[in-house]
């Protein structure tokens, strides 16, 4: 087991932990706009960290180049998709409800 394998497994573990914390954050926030912000960050950062770990484990290869291309596409498209969903909700008149939430 080389140092690159160890770094790769550490990155994959960190990505899984970040994704788990993010899922908890999605359930913790109470309104749509906060949840969509958290889900976008979790999706982007968790995915990037896991894929970077996979690239470290496989080393320099054609597979790593394909994974890097997928990561670049995901980094570009995920925030755009989240923005378009939030903007369409805003333009359609979706508002944050005022009042009591979950016992607060």
Q: What is the radius of gyration?
A: 17 Å
Series of secondary-structure elements, N-terminal to C-terminal = HHH
Tally of domains: 1
Largest sheet: none
Structural class category: mainly alpha
Keywords summarizing the entry:
single chain, 104 residues, mainly alpha, 3 helices, elongated
Commentary on this structure:
The protein has about 100 residues and is mostly helical. The chain has one domain. The protein contains three helices and no strands. Helix 1 packs antiparallel against helix 2 and helix 2 runs antiparallel to helix 3. The longest helix has 30 residues. The protein is elongated. The termini are far apart. The model has no long low-confidence stretch (mean pLDDT about 90).
Short précis:
With 104 residues, the chain is an all-alpha fold. Helices cover 80% and strands 0% of the residues. The longest helix is centred in the last third of the chain and has 30 residues, at 62-91.
Give the helix/strand layout:
Blueprint lengths: L2 H26 L3 H27 L3 H30 L13
Helix pairs in contact: 1-2, 2-3
